[in-house]
Design goal:
heterodimer; A: mainly alpha; 68% helix; B: 260 residues; alpha/beta; 9 helices; globular
Protein backbone atom coordinates (compact mmCIF):
# COMPACT_ATOMS: atom_id res chain seq x y z
CA UNK A 1 0.00 0.00 0.00
CA UNK A 2 1.41 3.46 -0.88
CA UNK A 3 2.57 5.52 2.10
CA UNK A 4 -0.01 8.25 1.55
CA UNK A 5 -2.92 5.79 1.55
CA UNK A 6 -1.61 4.11 4.71
CA UNK A 7 -1.42 7.44 6.53
CA UNK A 8 -4.96 8.28 5.45
CA UNK A 9 -6.25 4.96 6.74
CA UNK A 10 -4.60 5.36 10.15
CA UNK A 11 -6.23 8.73 10.76
CA UNK A 12 -9.60 7.60 12.19
CA UNK A 13 -7.69 5.49 14.73
CA UNK A 14 -5.64 8.52 15.80
CA UNK A 15 -8.80 10.59 16.04
CA UNK A 16 -10.36 7.93 18.25
CA UNK A 17 -7.28 7.92 20.49
CA UNK A 18 -7.51 11.69 20.76
CA UNK A 19 -11.13 11.36 21.86
CA UNK A 20 -10.22 8.61 24.36
CA UNK A 21 -7.41 10.79 25.76
CA UNK A 22 -9.84 13.68 26.11
CA UNK A 23 -12.25 11.55 28.19
CA UNK A 24 -9.40 10.23 30.32
CA UNK A 25 -8.14 13.75 31.02
CA UNK A 26 -11.66 14.95 31.71
CA UNK A 27 -12.11 12.19 34.29
CA UNK A 28 -8.80 12.81 35.99
CA UNK A 29 -8.31 16.57 35.76
CA UNK A 30 -10.80 18.68 37.78
CA UNK A 31 -9.37 21.85 36.18
CA UNK A 32 -10.17 20.59 32.68
CA UNK A 33 -13.61 19.49 33.86
CA UNK A 34 -14.23 23.00 35.17
CA UNK A 35 -13.14 24.57 31.90
CA UNK A 36 -15.28 22.09 29.97
CA UNK A 37 -18.30 22.97 32.12
CA UNK A 38 -17.88 26.67 31.31
CA UNK A 39 -16.91 26.34 27.66
CA UNK A 40 -17.42 22.83 26.26
CA UNK A 41 -16.87 23.72 22.61
CA UNK A 42 -13.72 25.77 23.21
CA UNK A 43 -12.23 23.07 25.46
CA UNK A 44 -12.85 20.39 22.84
CA UNK A 45 -11.40 22.53 20.04
CA UNK A 46 -8.32 23.19 22.18
CA UNK A 47 -7.99 19.43 22.79
CA UNK A 48 -7.87 18.97 19.01
CA UNK A 49 -11.11 17.03 18.61
CA UNK A 50 -12.57 16.89 15.12
CA UNK A 51 -15.95 18.47 14.32
CA UNK A 52 -17.47 15.00 14.09
CA UNK A 53 -16.18 14.00 17.51
CA UNK A 54 -17.23 17.29 19.08
CA UNK A 55 -20.76 16.57 17.86
CA UNK A 56 -20.59 13.06 19.32
CA UNK A 57 -19.46 14.36 22.72
CA UNK A 58 -22.15 17.05 22.69
CA UNK A 59 -24.81 14.41 21.97
CA UNK A 60 -24.24 13.00 25.47
CA UNK A 61 -25.35 9.64 24.08
CA UNK A 62 -23.20 6.88 25.62
CA UNK A 63 -24.08 4.39 22.86
CA UNK A 64 -22.98 6.83 20.16
CA UNK A 65 -19.80 7.67 22.05
CA UNK A 66 -18.96 3.99 22.52
CA UNK A 67 -19.51 3.29 18.84
CA UNK A 68 -17.31 6.23 17.86
CA UNK A 69 -14.56 4.99 20.17
CA UNK A 70 -14.62 1.70 18.32
CA UNK A 71 -16.80 -0.68 20.29
CA UNK A 72 -19.60 -2.46 18.48
CA UNK A 73 -21.18 -4.10 21.50
CA UNK A 74 -22.62 -2.97 24.79
CA UNK A 75 -20.26 -2.05 27.63
CA UNK A 76 -19.21 -4.56 30.23
CA UNK A 77 -21.22 -7.39 28.81
CA UNK A 78 -18.69 -10.01 29.49
CA UNK A 79 -18.17 -10.57 33.15
CA UNK A 80 -21.59 -11.72 34.09
CA UNK A 81 -22.07 -14.39 36.71
CA UNK A 82 -24.12 -17.22 35.27
CA UNK A 83 -23.99 -20.81 36.53
CA UNK A 84 -26.84 -22.10 34.35
CA UNK A 85 -26.67 -24.10 31.13
CA UNK A 86 -29.20 -24.49 28.31
CA UNK A 87 -30.90 -27.90 28.16
CA UNK B 1 4.94 -19.21 49.60
CA UNK B 2 5.95 -19.75 45.95
CA UNK B 3 7.36 -17.02 43.72
CA UNK B 4 4.73 -15.31 41.62
CA UNK B 5 1.64 -13.49 42.83
CA UNK B 6 -1.77 -12.32 41.68
CA UNK B 7 -3.56 -9.07 42.46
CA UNK B 8 -7.09 -8.48 41.19
CA UNK B 9 -8.31 -4.89 40.95
CA UNK B 10 -11.32 -2.91 39.70
CA UNK B 11 -11.43 0.14 37.46
CA UNK B 12 -14.89 1.33 38.50
CA UNK B 13 -17.35 2.52 35.87
CA UNK B 14 -16.30 6.03 34.92
CA UNK B 15 -13.39 6.03 32.47
CA UNK B 16 -10.12 6.52 34.34
CA UNK B 17 -11.91 8.18 37.24
CA UNK B 18 -12.85 5.45 39.69
CA UNK B 19 -9.75 3.28 40.06
CA UNK B 20 -8.35 3.56 43.58
CA UNK B 21 -4.73 4.68 44.18
CA UNK B 22 -3.80 1.16 45.36
CA UNK B 23 -5.34 -0.36 42.21
CA UNK B 24 -3.40 2.09 40.03
CA UNK B 25 -0.17 1.30 41.87
CA UNK B 26 -0.74 -2.42 41.35
CA UNK B 27 -1.45 -1.93 37.63
CA UNK B 28 1.63 0.22 37.09
CA UNK B 29 4.08 -2.04 38.92
CA UNK B 30 2.87 -5.44 37.66
CA UNK B 31 5.32 -7.53 35.65
CA UNK B 32 2.37 -8.82 33.63
CA UNK B 33 -0.96 -7.03 33.37
CA UNK B 34 -4.30 -8.28 32.03
CA UNK B 35 -7.57 -6.41 31.75
CA UNK B 36 -11.20 -6.96 30.88
CA UNK B 37 -13.17 -3.75 30.53
CA UNK B 38 -16.24 -2.70 28.62
CA UNK B 39 -14.99 0.39 26.91
CA UNK B 40 -12.27 1.13 24.32
CA UNK B 41 -11.21 4.36 26.06
CA UNK B 42 -10.65 2.53 29.35
CA UNK B 43 -8.67 -0.12 27.48
CA UNK B 44 -6.56 2.58 25.85
CA UNK B 45 -5.95 4.21 29.24
CA UNK B 46 -4.91 0.92 30.86
CA UNK B 47 -2.50 0.22 28.01
CA UNK B 48 -0.76 3.52 28.70
CA UNK B 49 -0.26 2.51 32.34
CA UNK B 50 1.56 -0.76 31.77
CA UNK B 51 3.36 -1.85 28.56
CA UNK B 52 2.65 -5.53 29.27
CA UNK B 53 -1.12 -4.92 29.14
CA UNK B 54 -3.13 -7.67 27.45
CA UNK B 55 -6.88 -7.82 27.02
CA UNK B 56 -8.86 -10.90 28.04
CA UNK B 57 -11.77 -9.87 25.82
CA UNK B 58 -10.66 -12.22 23.04
CA UNK B 59 -11.54 -15.17 25.27
CA UNK B 60 -15.13 -14.37 24.33
CA UNK B 61 -16.72 -15.44 21.12
CA UNK B 62 -20.25 -14.86 19.96
CA UNK B 63 -22.38 -17.87 20.92
CA UNK B 64 -19.69 -19.48 23.11
CA UNK B 65 -20.77 -20.57 26.60
CA UNK B 66 -19.58 -17.86 28.98
CA UNK B 67 -18.26 -20.32 31.55
CA UNK B 68 -15.81 -21.73 28.99
CA UNK B 69 -14.58 -18.20 28.35
CA UNK B 70 -14.20 -17.50 32.07
CA UNK B 71 -12.17 -20.66 32.67
CA UNK B 72 -9.89 -19.80 29.76
CA UNK B 73 -9.33 -16.35 31.29
CA UNK B 74 -8.41 -17.90 34.63
CA UNK B 75 -5.80 -20.08 32.97
CA UNK B 76 -4.39 -17.18 30.96
CA UNK B 77 -4.00 -15.11 34.12
CA UNK B 78 -2.43 -17.91 36.15
CA UNK B 79 0.12 -18.96 33.51
CA UNK B 80 2.57 -16.06 34.22
CA UNK B 81 1.94 -16.39 37.97
CA UNK B 82 3.18 -19.98 37.73
CA UNK B 83 6.27 -18.67 35.95
CA UNK B 84 7.04 -16.54 39.03
CA UNK B 85 5.75 -13.18 37.79
CA UNK B 86 3.86 -10.53 39.76
CA UNK B 87 0.56 -10.39 37.87
CA UNK B 88 -2.27 -7.87 38.10
CA UNK B 89 -5.63 -8.26 36.41
CA UNK B 90 -8.18 -5.44 36.21
CA UNK B 91 -11.91 -5.81 35.70
CA UNK B 92 -14.37 -2.98 35.28
CA UNK B 93 -16.50 -2.11 38.31
CA UNK B 94 -15.62 -3.96 41.51
CA UNK B 95 -13.45 -6.99 40.72
CA UNK B 96 -15.33 -9.18 43.18
CA UNK B 97 -18.89 -8.22 42.26
CA UNK B 98 -20.41 -10.35 39.49
CA UNK B 99 -17.00 -11.43 38.24
CA UNK B 100 -16.53 -15.19 38.25
CA UNK B 101 -12.99 -15.33 36.78
CA UNK B 102 -11.54 -12.99 39.43
CA UNK B 103 -12.71 -15.08 42.37
CA UNK B 104 -11.76 -18.31 40.63
CA UNK B 105 -8.26 -17.07 39.77
CA UNK B 106 -7.66 -15.98 43.38
CA UNK B 107 -8.95 -19.34 44.68
CA UNK B 108 -6.75 -21.37 42.35
CA UNK B 109 -3.67 -19.22 42.90
CA UNK B 110 -3.97 -19.62 46.67
CA UNK B 111 -4.60 -23.35 46.41
CA UNK B 112 -1.36 -23.63 44.40
CA UNK B 113 0.59 -21.77 47.08
CA UNK B 114 0.79 -18.31 45.46
CA UNK B 115 -0.01 -15.02 47.18
CA UNK B 116 -3.29 -13.71 45.78
CA UNK B 117 -5.15 -10.54 46.74
CA UNK B 118 -8.34 -8.85 45.63
CA UNK B 119 -8.55 -5.09 46.05
CA UNK B 120 -11.99 -3.49 46.37
CA UNK B 121 -13.35 -1.24 43.64
CA UNK B 122 -16.45 0.78 42.82
CA UNK B 123 -19.40 -1.38 41.75
CA UNK B 124 -22.57 -0.45 39.87
CA UNK B 125 -24.40 -0.72 43.19
CA UNK B 126 -22.07 1.85 44.76
CA UNK B 127 -22.82 4.22 41.88
CA UNK B 128 -26.55 3.51 42.25
CA UNK B 129 -26.52 4.43 45.95
CA UNK B 130 -24.89 7.75 45.08
CA UNK B 131 -26.98 8.58 42.00
CA UNK B 132 -30.39 7.54 43.34
CA UNK B 133 -29.75 8.82 46.85
CA UNK B 134 -30.41 5.42 48.39
CA UNK B 135 -28.87 4.70 51.78
CA UNK B 136 -28.99 0.97 52.55
CA UNK B 137 -28.77 1.89 56.24
CA UNK B 138 -32.23 3.45 56.14
CA UNK B 139 -34.48 0.61 55.02
CA UNK B 140 -32.00 -2.16 54.30
CA UNK B 141 -31.24 -3.41 50.82
CA UNK B 142 -31.65 -6.69 48.98
CA UNK B 143 -29.56 -7.47 45.95
CA UNK B 144 -29.95 -10.41 43.57
CA UNK B 145 -28.85 -11.44 40.12
CA UNK B 146 -32.09 -11.34 38.09
CA UNK B 147 -32.01 -14.88 36.65
CA UNK B 148 -31.07 -16.28 40.05
CA UNK B 149 -33.92 -14.25 41.60
CA UNK B 150 -36.44 -15.90 39.28
CA UNK B 151 -35.04 -19.44 39.19
CA UNK B 152 -34.52 -19.82 42.92
CA UNK B 153 -37.69 -17.96 43.85
CA UNK B 154 -35.71 -15.73 46.22
CA UNK B 155 -37.63 -14.60 49.27
CA UNK B 156 -37.48 -10.87 49.77
CA UNK B 157 -39.07 -8.15 51.88
CA UNK B 158 -41.15 -5.69 49.82
CA UNK B 159 -40.73 -3.14 52.63
CA UNK B 160 -37.04 -2.88 51.79
CA UNK B 161 -35.38 -1.76 48.51
CA UNK B 162 -34.73 -4.50 45.98
CA UNK B 163 -31.86 -4.34 43.50
CA UNK B 164 -31.82 -6.76 40.55
CA UNK B 165 -28.69 -7.09 38.42
CA UNK B 166 -28.43 -8.07 34.77
CA UNK B 167 -32.13 -7.65 34.02
CA UNK B 168 -31.28 -7.39 30.32
CA UNK B 169 -29.75 -10.86 30.17
CA UNK B 170 -32.28 -13.05 31.96
CA UNK B 171 -31.92 -16.70 30.97
CA UNK B 172 -29.15 -16.13 28.42
CA UNK B 173 -26.11 -18.39 28.81
CA UNK B 174 -24.01 -17.28 25.87
CA UNK B 175 -22.26 -14.06 24.89
CA UNK B 176 -24.23 -11.73 22.64
CA UNK B 177 -23.35 -8.46 21.02
CA UNK B 178 -26.78 -6.81 21.31
CA UNK B 179 -27.56 -4.26 24.00
CA UNK B 180 -30.62 -6.13 25.29
CA UNK B 181 -30.18 -9.88 25.36
CA UNK B 182 -33.71 -10.99 26.27
CA UNK B 183 -36.96 -9.02 26.16
CA UNK B 184 -38.82 -12.25 27.06
CA UNK B 185 -36.79 -12.51 30.27
CA UNK B 186 -37.79 -8.98 31.15
CA UNK B 187 -41.46 -9.87 30.67
CA UNK B 188 -41.05 -12.91 32.93
CA UNK B 189 -39.35 -10.82 35.62
CA UNK B 190 -42.19 -8.29 35.47
CA UNK B 191 -44.78 -11.02 35.99
CA UNK B 192 -42.83 -12.33 39.00
CA UNK B 193 -42.59 -8.85 40.55
CA UNK B 194 -46.28 -8.16 39.86
CA UNK B 195 -47.16 -10.84 42.44
CA UNK B 196 -45.73 -8.52 45.10
CA UNK B 197 -45.95 -4.98 43.69
CA UNK B 198 -48.85 -3.15 42.05
CA UNK B 199 -48.76 -2.41 38.30
CA UNK B 200 -48.26 1.31 38.94
CA UNK B 201 -45.36 0.79 41.36
CA UNK B 202 -42.53 2.93 40.00
CA UNK B 203 -39.26 1.11 39.40
CA UNK B 204 -36.01 2.58 38.07
CA UNK B 205 -33.88 1.21 35.25
CA UNK B 206 -30.39 2.41 36.09
CA UNK B 207 -26.99 2.55 34.40
CA UNK B 208 -23.93 4.14 36.01
CA UNK B 209 -22.24 6.95 34.09
CA UNK B 210 -19.36 5.71 32.00
CA UNK B 211 -18.21 8.91 30.33
CA UNK B 212 -17.56 12.19 32.11
CA UNK B 213 -19.84 13.97 29.62
CA UNK B 214 -22.82 11.64 30.13
CA UNK B 215 -25.00 11.58 33.23
CA UNK B 216 -26.09 8.24 34.64
CA UNK B 217 -29.17 6.73 33.00
CA UNK B 218 -32.06 6.94 35.46
CA UNK B 219 -35.29 5.78 33.84
CA UNK B 220 -38.34 5.61 36.13
CA UNK B 221 -41.16 3.44 34.76
CA UNK B 222 -44.33 1.92 36.20
CA UNK B 223 -43.66 -1.78 36.82
CA UNK B 224 -46.27 -2.77 34.21
CA UNK B 225 -44.27 -0.87 31.56
CA UNK B 226 -40.92 -2.48 32.41
CA UNK B 227 -41.01 -4.92 29.44
CA UNK B 228 -41.18 -1.92 27.09
CA UNK B 229 -38.45 0.10 28.85
CA UNK B 230 -35.03 0.83 27.33
CA UNK B 231 -33.01 -1.87 29.05
CA UNK B 232 -29.50 -3.02 28.20
CA UNK B 233 -27.30 -5.81 29.50
CA UNK B 234 -25.67 -3.41 31.96
CA UNK B 235 -28.96 -2.07 33.34
CA UNK B 236 -29.69 -2.60 37.00
CA UNK B 237 -33.26 -2.50 38.26
CA UNK B 238 -34.04 -0.61 41.44
CA UNK B 239 -37.38 -1.48 43.04
CA UNK B 240 -38.24 0.94 45.85
CA UNK B 241 -40.03 -0.40 48.92
CA UNK B 242 -43.78 -0.85 48.59
CA UNK B 243 -44.27 0.48 52.11
CA UNK B 244 -42.34 1.33 55.27
CA UNK B 245 -41.73 -1.43 57.80
CA UNK B 246 -43.07 -0.66 61.25
CA UNK B 247 -40.94 -1.53 64.27
CA UNK B 248 -42.08 -4.40 66.45
CA UNK B 249 -43.43 -3.06 69.75
CA UNK B 250 -42.25 -6.01 71.80
CA UNK B 251 -38.74 -5.72 70.43
CA UNK B 252 -38.76 -1.98 71.14
CA UNK B 253 -39.73 -2.74 74.72
CA UNK B 254 -37.07 -5.45 75.10
CA UNK B 255 -34.42 -3.01 73.91
CA UNK B 256 -35.77 -0.23 76.12
CA UNK B 257 -36.57 1.95 73.10
CA UNK B 258 -39.58 3.87 71.81
CA UNK B 259 -40.44 5.33 68.40
CA UNK B 260 -38.85 8.75 67.83
Amino acid sequence: MPKKARAKKAKPQDERKKLARFFIQLSRDPGLRGRFGKNPHGTMVKAGLSKKHIAVVRSGDPKRIRKTLGSAGPPGCFILLFPWKKR
Amino acid sequence: MRNGSLTVVGTGHLIAGQATPEALQSIKTAKKFFYLVGDPATAYWLETLNPTAETLENSFRIGRNRMDSYLEMVERVLAPVRKGLRVTVAFYGHPGVFVFPSHEAVRRARSEGFAATMLPGISAEDCLFADLGVDPGQQGCQSFEATDFILRKRKFDARSPLILWQVGGIGVTTFRSKHLWSRAGLRLLTSVLRKTYPAEHEVIVYEAAQYPVCPPIIQPVPLSQLPKARVSIISTLYVPPREMARPDRRMLARLGLRSA
